[in-house]
Amino acid sequence: MSCGCKTSGDSAHSCGTKSANGCESVNTCGNSYKLSVFDWLSNVQNPVSNRCDFVEVRFKNDRKSFYKNVNNIPLHIGSVVTVESSPGHDVGVVTLTGELVKIQMKKKRFSEEGSFKIYRLANQKDIEVWQEVRKKEDTVKVEARKISHRLGLEMKITDVEYQGDASKVTFYYTADNRVDFRLLIKEFAGTFRTKIDMKQIGFRQEAAKIGGIGSCGRELCCSTWLTDFRSVNTNVARYQQLSINPQKLAGQCGKLKCCLNYELDSYLDALSHFPSSSTMLDTEKGRAFCIKIDVFKKKMWFAYVDSSMAWYDFDIDLVKKLIATNKKGEKILPLEDLKVPDIALPSVDLIQENSVDRFEKKNRGFNKNRNQNSNQNQNPHQNRPQNQGPKKRPERTEKPENSDRQKNTNPNANPNQNQRPAKQQPPKVQLEKAEVQNDSEKPQQPPKKKFKKKFPPKKDNNV
Questions:
Q1: Percent of the chain surpassing pLDDT 70
Q2: How far is it, in rounded angstroms, from Cα 54 to Cα 40?
Q3: Is 21's pLDDT higher than 70?
Q4: Which of 102, 164, 335, 382 could form a disulfide with 90 if both were Cys (CB 3.0 to 4.6 A apart)?
Q5: How confident is the model at residue 46 (pLDDT cuts 50, 70, 90)?
Q6: Which pLDDT does position 225 carry in this prediction?
Q7: pLDDT bucket at 345, cuts 50 / 70 / 90
């Protein structure tokens, strides 16, 4: 009986390979992905004289401790062991062995004096009892919350953990203020019939025990690898030019995110090359103050004290020169004169370039124009739609019929008198061509005579 969960970086071992020493499910292991340590010294042969007798054992969720292997039991990562506890014994899983345990003990300041020891490898009876009590933890937690709510205590029971031999149960709770739970312990002891242990934890430890997914899309750092919780304040967000928005800066624990400290050193190093954010510039137009800093672009935005709506950005090298000029007692030019105009880059229509059918549109229009030109060259009169009649001529004023006769009958008249100006000559030529085309297309036919239908006179019936 073994489970496929990995308890540390060593993928060669699981939570046990034998039926007597294995576990049946990941639930029994207690979310083994939490706070796992990669043993990078596992393949290094250590001297026998410097052999480490301590091993790291993990229990439910993030609870870990170090135990001494006094009997020199051959242990590896994933072995299920029975360890000493107060009272009775407990069951856990080995997560780290070898010389790396000394480094972890030194990091966590664990004292070797008074440490507990490992009894044996867990047998089948130990594992069965352990699994039975682990199955009752959810129902016990719900019942404990009902009791605390009935007593009117301002506390939240976060997690419940049974000891391996079912002789003790530990209740982890969070509260803003101090809670008097003397009456609560009596209720718990009478209901669950076992020894009760109450432990108050912080909101960050609560998130580490429960686990979850952060806003970055990954598992919470406090439940996977982060063991020490450093203080985080709002100055960290101000250094990184972040808006002080509690909904975005707070994690699932309700406190500021621990990851705000990760890049703080880089920001402080970059800000050491910037002038102070309280810098004031004396210009000919008035005093200006720093309103914004961009760490990545290495720019500072300034605005006038009188009119702070207009912002002007400058490189930090130019700002240092301006500050040096003010220190000499000289005023600098207005900010709008110092601002170098930005070169406008040619805009690209990203929507048109990234559209899926952009090639089809271009080719379709190109082929259409090419076909029209080729057809017009072959026969310009075939492309005219059949359902439409001839093109209408633009309206023009009609001349009296005698004007044309006068042109023909008077040979001595000046020929330039009746000519149109040069600007209006092209439309005349086009009209004449249109008339020729229209006359050629439609054969001239004599107009049909319209006959009026004559009706006989109406008879007067009164006669």
A1: 63
A2: 17
A3: no
A4: 164
A5: low
A6: 85
A7: low
**What's the chain look like in SS3?**
CCCCCCCCCCCCCCCCCCCCCCCCCHHHHCCCCCCCCCCCCCCCCCCCCCCCCEEEEECCCCCEEEEECCCCCCCCCCCEEEEECCCCEEEEEEEECCCHHHHHHHHCCCCCCCCCEEEEECCHHHHHHHHHHHHCHHHHHHHHHHHHHHCCCCCEEEEEEECCCCCEEEEEEECCCCCCCHHHHHHHHHHHCCEEEEEECCHHHHHHHHCCECCCCCECHHHHCCCCCCCCCHHHHHHCCCCCCHHHHECCCCCECHHHHCCHHHHHHHHCCCCCCCCEEEECCCEEEEEEEECCCCEEEEEECCCCCCCEEEEHHHHHHHHHHHHCCCCECCHHHHCCCCCCCCCCCHHHHHCCCHHHHHHHHHHHHHHHHHHHHHCCCCCCCCCCCCCCCCCCCCCCHHHHHHHHHCCCCCCCCCCCCCCCHHHHHHHHHHHHHHHHHCCCCCCCCCCCCCCCCCCCCCC
Structure tokens at 399: 């001349």
How confident is the model over 402-449, as pLDDT tens digits?
A: 444 444 444 455 544 445 555 445 544 444 444 444 444 455 555 665
Report the alpha-carbon distance of residue 83 to residue 68 in Å, rounded.
9
Q: Which residues pair with 426 in a beta bridge?
A: none
Task: Say how far apart CA 126 and CA 326 lie, in whole Å.
Answer: 80
Distance CA 148, CA 139 (A): 15
CATH for 136-208?
3.30.300.20
Question: Could you tell me what percent of the chain has a pLDDT over 90?
Answer: 30
- Looking at residue 413, its amino acid is A
- CA angle, 286 then 291 then 296, to 5°: 130
Q: How many CB atoms lie within 10 A of CB 14?
A: 20
Q: Where are the domains of the chain?
A: 26-124, 136-208, 230-272, 280-338
Give the pTM.
Answer: 0.59
The pLDDT confidence band at residue 361, using thresholds 50, 70 and 90, is low
Find tokens 């952009």 and name the residue.
358
Task: List pLDDT tens digits, range 296-337.
Answer: 888 999 999 888 788 888 999 999 999 999 999 888 888 888
**pLDDT one-digit tens code per residue, 111-159:** 888 789 999 999 999 999 999 999 999 999 999 999 999 999 999 999 9
